Amino acid sequence: MKRLSLTLAICLAGTMSQAGEVAPKDVKFDDSGAIAESLTGVAGDAANGAMIVGSKKKGNCVACHAVTALADIPFHGEIGPMLDGAGERWSEAELRGLVANAKMTFEGTLMPAFYKVDGFIRPGDAYTGKAGAEPLPPILTAQEIEDVVAFLATLKEE
After folding, report:
1. Looking at residue 68, what DSSP letter applies?
2. How many C-beta atoms lie closer than 10 Å to residue 53's C-beta?
3. How far is residue 65's CA from residue 32's CA, in Å, rounded to a whole number?
4. Residue 83 and residue 20: Cα distance in Å, rounded?
5. Burial level of 96, CB count in 10 A (0-12/13-18/19+)?
6. CB of 67 within 8 A of CB of 78?
7. Per-residue pLDDT tens listing for the chain (158 residues)
8. Where are the alpha helices (DSSP H) in the chain?
9. Which residues, 6+ apart, have CB-to-CB distance to 80 below 8 Å?
10. If phi over 0 gives left and psi between -120 and 50 gives alpha, with beta otherwise, what is residue 113?
């Protein structure tokens, strides 16, 4: 009985965390582009966020940004600002907004919206040259956004 209760509690906790996830179309940005509330209700994992920032298959943030904490990853870009000190320059709400959709803060930015599913300008569909059908899946999940925010919040000026 004890094991059954524990299993049920774990299942309910997983369901509650999924139920609390904010869908991309339901994200509430403030006037400056920040997102005050967590997209998942679960704290981000900074170590996983670092992997996403450096992963060519996920965030690939280093393609445009330099990050001293990830110096072992080759080919950092110079298109976007250096991310060192991001945790001092922006609040978690501002970081969350920037990662989810930086265009809400910086209208002309080249940074992709990592948590957006529609309203794209000519997205490609698997290298066919044809526009993809919307809604497209977000580049990062809500929890991955929270993980990246947790990592960025650790970046202080050195």
Report:
1. G
2. 24
3. 22
4. 29
5. buried
6. no
7. 444 333 333 333 443 345 589 999 999 999 999 999 999 999 999 999 999 999 999 999 999 999 999 999 999 999 999 999 999 999 999 999 999 999 999 999 999 999 999 887 666 666 777 777 778 899 999 999 999 999 999 999 86
8. 2-19, 46-54, 86-89, 92-101, 142-154
9. 61, 64, 65, 110, 111
10. beta
Largest CA distance in the chain: 58
Backbone angles phi, psi at 12, to 5 degrees: -65, -40
pTM for this prediction: 0.82
Q: Which amino acid is at 39?
A: L
Q: Encoding tokens for residue 23?
A: 């869908």
Q: How far is it, in rounded angstroms, from Cα 99 to Cα 147?
A: 11
Q: Within 13 A of 105's CA, how many CA atoms are on the CB side?
A: 18
What is the chain's length? 158
Structure tokens at 116: 């957006």
Cβ of 141: how many Cβ atoms within 10 Å?
A: 18
Closest among 66, 64, 132 to 102, alpha carbons compared = 64
